């Protein structure tokens, strides 16, 4: 079974802190994704990566950056956390190309105070 | 632009049927369907590809109208385990691998 793990289930940070969210997958997937999920807004894509050191902006990249130094690991970075970044963050991975299902991690609920 | 899902929420009795719709204003290559139970990660259900191919769940069916850029998910003889939030994810022509998800449809199945 594909396994996507995220470093924390719950995280509380202060405004202005630098925050790292880590995601690891064990299925040798080329594609990895970061989403945020907010009530009534569904899943919104922040960034995705289709290869090591390659990244593309999603629909809401402002305030975020990413890093992918190894194929299995994709990190989301909040350079200076703000209260409007309080949300559930979901990582996903998939095989490359068209129309492969995405496998999601359990999510990290981040609260910025 | 996010696809539009309808209804936003539905309550069913066990054994009843439901249809969830997903509509996009963009030309689509495929539509994906996922279900998320409370407190859990979204789980893949089905992919519908342009041209009619389907991949996925054997107890849930779906359709994809390429001309109208619409998809519908059909849940028949619903079970308690069908409860959750259903999301469609649309893959647009020219944006391989990237999905844009709808806002979700909350389904509750009761006894």
Explain this structure.
The complex is a heterodimer of chains A (113) and B (111). By secondary structure, chain A is mainly beta. Helices cover 0% and strands 56% of the residues of chain A. In chain A, strands 2, 4, 5, 6, 9, 10 and 11 form a seven-stranded mixed β-sheet that branches. Chain A is globular, with a radius of gyration of 13 Å. Chain A starts with a strand and ends with a strand. Chain B has strands at residues 4-6, 9-13, 18-23, 28-36, 43-49, 54-56, 61-65, 70-75, 84-92, 100-101, 105-110. In chain B, strands 2, 4, 5, 6, 9, 10 and 11 form a seven-stranded mixed β-sheet that branches. Chain B has a four-stranded antiparallel β-sheet with strand order 1-3-8-7, with no helix packed on it. Chain B has 111 residues and is mainly β. Classes of the chains: A mainly beta (113), B mainly beta (111). The interface between A and B is medium-sized, with 28 and 26 residues.
Question: What layout of secondary structure does this protein have?
Answer:
The complex is a heterodimer of chains A (113) and B (111).
Chain A: E1 4-6, E2 10-13, E3 19-25, E4 31-38, E5 42-51, E6 54-57, E7 65-70, E8 73-78, E9 87-94, E10 103-104, E11 108-112
Parallel strand pairs in A: 2-11
Antiparallel strand pairs in A: 1-3, 3-8, 4-5, 4-9, 5-6, 7-8, 9-10, 9-11
Chain B: E1 4-6, E2 9-13, E3 18-23, E4 28-36, E5 43-49, E6 54-56, E7 61-65, E8 70-75, E9 84-92, E10 100-101, E11 105-110
Parallel strand pairs in B: 2-11
Antiparallel strand pairs in B: 1-3, 3-8, 4-5, 4-9, 5-6, 7-8, 9-10, 9-11
